[in-house]
């Protein structure tokens, strides 16, 4: 199992990223290898600096770096030997089983569409976020930013993508799917949401439980929460800020600890032909380590193959 | 100053509502009178039951009741002597200075448009929510549910409505206006938000500071946060649920106490020819009391007259 990591991506790359890889090299399951993609000298020096000795970490050279603020499409075209381009090339060739980057989010999304491409039948791949449930479980919500606006049929597919993830990665059987809305009644919300509600309701492959509201994000009403990338992004960042506020007030609680972005590691892109994860720009060593664990779990579960299978029928 | 309250509206009406009126009768400023609108016998009995003696509370009879689940337009047409219809009639005739109800939200919004109507020049009145700021102040965000979808020019006007409220009721001079988006850069978000950004940027009457993100809701970047009613509603309910979760875990903190819906009292409808506030369906006596205080503050500030003035020029 080869998990690749963009050593050059993130506000604190390569230091934090390489440190995260070293952390993960100590506790990832035995069959996992970590592939660091980046400028060879820089990465090697960084590994030495942090005392890496593990034979589980290897380097794939990539001479170019896509910066955080660059225009995604332009950067990918102009930098074919960047760590992000290289990662997706390897993913496409199946030389790696997963690719993670805390770098330029846009380039990660566009890169996926250019290289491994969307799974046949998937209208729009989605980036997913996770929500700690009060009952101790984990919920998934999607999209969290890849698609600011979504048509009803796209939202309907998010239900399926999220359900497959919930089943195969989170281990939830018959996951409950809820549509984020401003009221529980069927006729609530925008025209798009009303149409999405009907599609979801009549989708035989889903356990659709209806609309949910902002107050239901953390309770056990739904395991899979469907929303457009705009609302998902606001929810994600708002939840992260709650954790920061609690921390600043020295309020420590095991439940709210799960709001820490570091605990999750990153956002999987679902509905593409490969396992890819986008990490937080500020990714710390701990966050990076957890991103690698998440990638391992995804690759091991066969989630991508399952999505390919379920969308082909 | 006559503040009217729908005695029949809310999940726990008339009991909680009447108790809230009694609470407020003890601590509202001297020039405030409370007008309870509802079925006279029921309200009188309820006042007696709770030992009301204040001469500051009077009753205006309304024989009908609009239930929480009723269709707003139909209910208002079929029940002209309902407490909500009556409240707006009195508001229109300027026999009261403010009208509050924890009843049917849709009927409160439609009722406003039927009776006192939108201020000339205002495209869409907005319902507003409040956010406790980490620096100790209060921010206002709008819309929180009256308009699920908003055109750019409507979002631009929300900036003005919110700024006037921030100045005249919250006492913030030159309030900073932020547009809720999924990134700080000007070109981020949906086509609607990109257009709204340009309108706001070029609006000379506003102190527009640009896009803000979900993580900025509670910090001091913006005093006025513009969003459509869909996202505002999700944010409002999500924030309320955070308070409930903290409470369930016995985590008490003065900052998070402000997340309690009871502390705020309700959502003002801004941009109509009168002061109207929609309370939470579950309004307790404390929430009802605080809704009356909020109504008093709004009426005293002359916010409606200020909105009329600023939109007429």
From TrEMBL, chains A, B:
Domain of life of the organism encoding this protein: Bacteria
Catalysed reaction, written as an equation: a fatty acyl-[ACP] + phosphate = an acyl phosphate + holo-[ACP]
Top-rank EC class of the record's enzyme: transferase
Keywords: Acyltransferase, Cytoplasm, Lipid biosynthesis, Lipid metabolism, Phospholipid biosynthesis, Phospholipid metabolism, Transferase
GO CC terms of this entry: cytoplasm
Pathway: Lipid metabolism; phospholipid metabolism
Gene3D superfamilies on file: Isopropylmalate Dehydrogenase
Principal subcellular localization: cytoplasm
GO molecular function, one term: phosphate:acyl-[acyl carrier protein] acyltransferase activity
Family affiliation: Belongs to the PlsX family.
Cross-referenced PANTHER family: FATTY ACID/PHOSPHOLIPID SYNTHESIS PROTEIN PLSX, PHOSPHATE ACYLTRANSFERASE
Biological role stated in the UniProt entry: Catalyzes the reversible formation of acyl-phosphate (acyl-PO(4)) from acyl-[acyl-carrier-protein] (acyl-ACP). This enzyme utilizes acyl-ACP as fatty acyl donor, but not acyl-CoA.
HAMAP family xref list: PlsX
Protein name: Phosphate acyltransferase
Annotated source species: Adhaeribacter radiodurans
Taxon lineage: Bacteria, Pseudomonadati, Bacteroidota, Cytophagia, Cytophagales
Gene name per UniProt: plsX
């Amino acid at each position: 199992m080869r998990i690749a990591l963009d050593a050059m991506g993130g506000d604190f790359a390569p230091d934090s990223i390489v440190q995260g890889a070293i952390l993960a090299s100590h506790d990832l399951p035995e069959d996992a290898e970590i592939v660091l993609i980046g400028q060879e000298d820089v990465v090697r020096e960084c590994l030495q600096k942090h005392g890496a000795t593990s034979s589980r970490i290897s380097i794939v050279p990539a001479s170019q770096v896509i910066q955080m603020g660059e225009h995604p499409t332009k950067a990918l075209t102009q930098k074919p030997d960047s760590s992000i381009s290289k990662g997706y090339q390897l993913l496409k060739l199946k030389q790696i089983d997963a690719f993670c980057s805390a770098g330029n989010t846009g380039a990660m999304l566009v890169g996926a569409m250019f290289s491994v491409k969307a799974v046949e039948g998937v209208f729009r791949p989605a980036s997913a976020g996770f929500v700690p449930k009060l009952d101790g479980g984990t919920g998934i919500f999607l999209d969290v930013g890849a698609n600011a606006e979504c048509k009803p049929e796209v939202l309907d597919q998010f239900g399926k993508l999220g359900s497959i993830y919930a089943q195969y990665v989170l281990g939830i059987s018959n996951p409950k799917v809820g549509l984020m809305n401003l009221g529980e009644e069927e006729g609530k919300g925008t025209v798009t949401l009303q149409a999405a509600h009907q599609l979801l309701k009549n989708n035989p492959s889903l356990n659709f439980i209806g609309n949910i509201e902002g107050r239901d994000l953390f309770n056990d009403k739904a395991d899979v929460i469907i929303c457009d990338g705009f609302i998902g992004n606001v929810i994600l960042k708002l939840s992260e800020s709650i954790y920061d506020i609690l921390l600043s007030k020295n309020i420590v609680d095991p439940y709210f600890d799960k709001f820490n972005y570091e605990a999750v590691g990153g956002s999987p892109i679902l509905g593409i032909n490969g396992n890819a994860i986008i990490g937080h720009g500020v990714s710390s060593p701990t966050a990076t380590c957890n991103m690698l664990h998440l990638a391992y779990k995804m690759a091991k579960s066969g989630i991508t193959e399952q999505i390919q299978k379920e969308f082909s029928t």
